């Protein structure tokens, strides 16, 4: 479990105990239910990380809502959009092995994460990872309608492994993954993915990718 779960859960359990002492058991139902929710929400399950070369794993749990091709300033790309509801695990993981070369936090709005505009306008933390073979990955932790805090643990210069835990977005959020046009997608809309273990795409060795989380 993420440390925040103990903070919220134990705090509410303490509040429930005070309510029981002052007013009796019936009045403690709400803080007890909230404590159970927070202890469940901040769960952090172990995952089996695939080890084959050329794989891009999902940075987070969620539902694939869109896979499209689009033109960017860097040429044609494929985009995979993943929505995280309050019922998904919100621990974020590195999509590849590499070194953190840049971390940039931006304040922003709290639009619904299902809104495409949230990718550019919402609060977000932008992280760039340089892979061992020159692959570059930039992923953005994008806050959603209910999220009010983004957590990212590694610092610039830190080494991360594929599937390694790197942070957390509290409550609803969104993950956008941009891949080269040559990438072979392994998911489609309507599929649920798990952070660190679900393969989103396969890439030829040395091909660069950009992941927006």
From TrEMBL:
Pathway where this protein functions: Phospholipid metabolism; phosphatidylethanolamine biosynthesis; phosphatidylethanolamine from CDP-diacylglycerol: step 2/2
Please indicate which superkingdom the organism of origin belongs to: Bacteria
Q: How does it sit in the membrane?
A: Peripheral membrane protein
How is the polypeptide modified once translated? Answer: Is synthesized initially as an inactive proenzyme. Formation of the active enzyme involves a self-maturation process in which the active site pyruvoyl group is generated from an internal serine residue via an autocatalytic post-translational modification. Two non-identical subunits are generated from the proenzyme in this reaction, and the pyruvate is formed at the N-terminus of the alpha chain, which is derived from the carboxyl end of the proenzyme.
* A Pfam cross-reference name: PS_Dcarbxylase
> What are the record keywords, sorted?
Cell membrane, Decarboxylase, Lipid biosynthesis, Lipid metabolism, Lyase, Membrane, Phospholipid biosynthesis, Phospholipid metabolism, Pyruvate, Transmembrane, Transmembrane helix, Zymogen
Q: Which residues, renumbered to this chain, carry the PTM Pyruvic acid (Ser)?
A: 173
The entry's active site is 173
Question: Which note does the record give on the cofactor?
Answer: Binds 1 pyruvoyl group covalently per subunit.
Q: Which reaction(s) are listed as its catalytic activity?
A: a 1,2-diacyl-sn-glycero-3-phospho-L-serine + H(+) = a 1,2-diacyl-sn-glycero-3-phosphoethanolamine + CO2
List site positions: Cleavage (non-hydrolytic). Answer: 172-173
Q: Where are the transmembrane segments?
A: 6-39
The first-level EC class reads: lyase
The protein's required cofactors: pyruvate
**Family per record:** Belongs to the phosphatidylserine decarboxylase family. PSD-A subfamily.
Entry function? Catalyzes the formation of phosphatidylethanolamine (PtdEtn) from phosphatidylserine (PtdSer).
On assembly, the entry states: Heterodimer of a large membrane-associated beta subunit and a small pyruvoyl-containing alpha subunit.
What name does the UniProt record give this protein? Phosphatidylserine decarboxylase proenzyme
